[in-house]
Amino acid sequence: AGALEENLSVWDGEYGLPEPDEEADDGDYERIESELFYYDIEKQYDKMKDQGMFEVLKILELDEIHSDNNLVLAVNYFNERDGSIEKDAPTRFLNRYEQRMVHKDGNFRPKLYAMLLSMKFAAALKEKTAFIKHSNKFFFRSGCLIPQDSIFKGFVK
Q1: CA geometry: angle 114, 118, 124, nearest 5 deg
Q2: pTM of the model
């Protein structure tokens, strides 16, 4: 997933590839390049599933109060259906272009959805827009994430 992460950025507050500029002269090239990127992600699904990548979504429970609500809905959907993704899956955690790619030509692409969900999950943890429930490393106080070990520094010499 490291190579994939290098191509992802934050665009207009959304994590993922930018939407192709349909007004620009090179818009067709950008559109094709973006579509190829998503097809490459989709092709990696079976390998990632065999390696257990999606088990992380099932094992790590998100703190629903402090995590991005759209991501929580998508992860809960994934877990409630044991990874079986249908066209009714929540897509608000995706940017507009990613939503169109997941529903390309009216066909729902569950493998692409699962890959994007996993990537967004990892990115949200890294960017601190999602938090793991029952984490022993951090806790919340007054809306702030505080390292657990910092509490005890004053008591232990």
Answers
A1: 140
A2: 0.69
